[in-house]
Specification:
mainly alpha; 7 helices
Length: 147
């Protein structure tokens, strides 16, 4: 059995379950993505220098991804049975459960970091596209009957 500190984000679960700044029903995927953007440089440096603390930083980054994934779907972060919870989400990268499982089990591998980068980019694009489509639909319905 793997040591949780080596591959599982459980030690940061309380961080993932914290409510966003402005309230319990307010989700801000932008916060999770911003955390990633600010933290990925450090993680990259840790991998380049083969620093063992890269696994700890990967644990935080994995939680940021969970936040982005759930919040971009308008849901609270649910890590109790995250695989099933993720399967129910509408906006998600292809094979996200398999890919994220690999990352969580192998946080010290540089390939895990690269895969996590890809997941962040894919989810962010899906979220941005979804917001754009909703904005277009909202704009077209508010103009109905206006001449």
């Amino acid at each position: 059995m793997k040591d949780r500190a080596e591959g599982q984000p459980d030690r940061y679960c309380s961080e993932a379950h914290e409510n966003p700044v402005d309230g319990a029903n307010s989700f801000h995927p932008e916060e999770a993505y911003q955390n990633w953007e600010e933290g990925k440089g450090l993680i990259s440096t840790l991998f380049k220098t083969r620093d063992a603390s890269s696994a700890d930083e990967m644990g935080r980054a994995i939680l940021w991804f969970h936040q982005l994934l759930f919040w971009s779907n308008g849901s609270e972060v649910d890590l109790s049975d995250w695989q099933k919870a993720v399967e129910r989400l509408e906006l998600k990268p292809h094979n996200v459960v398999d890919r994220l499982t690999f990352i969580q089990e192998n946080p010290r591998l540089a390939h895990s970091f690269l895969q996590l980068q890809e997941l962040f980019e894919e989810q962010w694009k899906r979220y941005a596209k979804d917001r754009a489509m909703k904005s277009i639909k909202k704009g077209s319905t508010s103009n109905v009957g206006v001449e």
